[in-house]
Structures are given as C-alpha cells and as structure tokens.
C-alpha cells in the first residue's frame, strides 16, 4: 500500500466546474473526497456541447465554447485527455476577414487561394502593402521579445505600439484588430488596449509570429462534453444547480460553504474556481489583498448563437475559414466583436450535408432568427495593463488549504484553466502523481 493511502482522506470542496474546477477536482480526487459545486444545471463551463436531433432523425453533437487545442501548448490538457482516454481528431484552424466597409475578403492558413480569393483582391494595392506589414509586424514583435522588458515596455498597449512603429490604419483594421478581437472575444477598442508584450508572448508561444510553423490543432471527438463526463466519473459528489451563496474560512484552516438553502457544510480545504468577481462575491471574509488583486481582473460578457445562417461568412467561397471575422458596413454595428466559428469545418461534422453549423459571437441582429438553434452567454477575461499587473500577483493569494483557480491565471484559454486547476490542487496538498485507487461510486444531486 502506498504511504498516501494510509493518510486519512480529507473532505475538499471545489466551487465551479469549468476546466479549472474539473482539473483541480480530478487531481484532488486521487486521494481526497471531493465535492464539486456547480450553479448551472450542467458541468463544464465553456466545455459546452449541444446534442441535436435533426428533422431527418440524424443526431449531431456541436460545441459552442471550448473548441480546439493543440499538440504544443496544451500539455496539462493533453495529459488529462491521455489519462482519461479522451478521443480527439484533427481540426482546421484558419481565419478569414470580411470587411463590408471596404469589400475586402481574405483568409489566412489557406494558401494562395485564401489570400487572393477573387481577382479583385489582386487589384488592391493597400492589401498588398498590408501583407508586407504583416511580415514587418512579426519582426518588430519578435524584437520586443528579444529585448529585456522595463516597466514602461511591459505596460505599453498594443495601439500605442502600432502607432509608434508606423503601422497603417488599413493594417490595424484588417489584420491586427480582427486577430486580437477574434482570439480573445473582445471589442476593437479593448483590443487596442491589450498589453503589447503580453500579446506578443502569446503569439510567439503559439507559433503565430511566423508565416509557417503553427502547431497541429485538434478537437474532442463527439464534443468537449465527452472529457467532462470522464472527469465526473472520478468524483465522489457532484452538486448541480447548487449555487454557493457564501464561503467563509475557519480558524483551523478549513472553510465553510453556505448554499442557497442556507445549509452550512465544513470542508478541510477548498478550491474556488470561478471568475474573479464571482470569487469576491462569495467570500464573506475577503481580505484587502484579495479585493485589490481579484477586483482588478475584469471579464467581458459575450452573447453567442448556434445557428445555420451562412450569410455571416465571407461571400467568396475561397475566403471562408474556420474563424470568420466580420466588420459591418455600418459603423454603428462595429462596436463589438462579430466572429463566426464554422463548427462543421472545425469539428469535421461530415454526416450533415444540407447545412453548416455556425457559432456567432456578437452581431445578434445580423443572424436570421429562424436559423438559431441555441443561444448562450459566455464571459472572457479582459487583458489591460492593470489586469496583467494584477495577474502577476495572484501567487500572493491563497494558503495551504485554500486556493483560487481559473483561466484568468493565464491567457484565458482552456490550457490556462487546466494548469491553474492543477496548481490550485497542488497548493492545498494534492498531487497528480499520488496513487489513485479504483473509481468510486459517486453521488450526483441536481
């Protein structure tokens, strides 16, 4: 028997069942008795799969939140998938820009046909110059990363970097802003405030500061709910539709959970894996330090629709991609991000031939309501010099029995959430390398 098995199992609470909470709960379940609280009626957070039955009787599973991961920059998630035997498959990661204001359409990662989808694209001198600016941007961004960062450099917003280096408005509107806004689900104004060096680190990490060399992207076969189900099978107790009203830490190092009915439960340790503002709202005894750091990390709220209206895609077939950014002709429509994910392409939904399943973030009024299958609301971290500074201090929070987790600990992606969940579990004494016993029968309350 392993020494760890001789120790008494602790009762540990995990608040929130997004990827951070799921990873923390999974790691902790190897030795501790874990209770997972989720306010929603389903587990997974952004791991959100819709099971659809079509008029023909065919069934299809479509993701609308977490979609893709890659073989290079998702090590925590890949370890989780490998251990749980989660099936994955190749995906298509390409991105298009459609500007109804200028008529420009093009797509990256689709070769020459994507860059020049119509003959008219060849006759756009500003577009040719923009392609040259893309290469110059790659060089300037890499130069920033090669230079030791002082505080001023680390805090410089993207918009100021672009202005200082003389990038054209055409480049900003048709390449830079769409890239940042689509990847981080933020409006164009917020994109300009993204800390430049922090952004460049992400782009370099993901092979996006070169024309070639991007990682191989994959998606979960059958939808991300498949991995959520496999994690859930390892947990002792799952409470669905169970919003936590308050969390209080006790003098002996434990913590109490007060649920919606006013019932109080004591736990030996706890991971709070919800958004920063939600964490602060739960803490009945938040410290000044917690309020200062977590209060400086805002999120944006984004409305999304699962639909089949192809009018939001580029008009030119060769310009259509997996991610499709739209700039409307009417400037009053361009205040928020409008990006359409082609789930048929991303998830290789080859069994349905009479329609394409699309997820559009923003632009609700542009989607034909008769084509809408489902509507969702997601929240994403907003990165500003202030929030990045607060993020650098997150290690100051928590204790040996209480930890925070969430994708806001990193760049806001699924790997960041998974890694933060692992680190939170380790912070309160868990270990992924701890021997795991056989699966236990668990209780699910909803």
From TrEMBL:
Pfam families: Amino_oxidase (PF01593). It comes from the Bacteria. Signal peptide: none annotated. One of its GO terms (molecular function) is oxidoreductase activity. Residues 19-428 form the Amine oxidase domain. It comes from Rhodococcus jostii (strain RHA1). This is Possible amine oxidase.
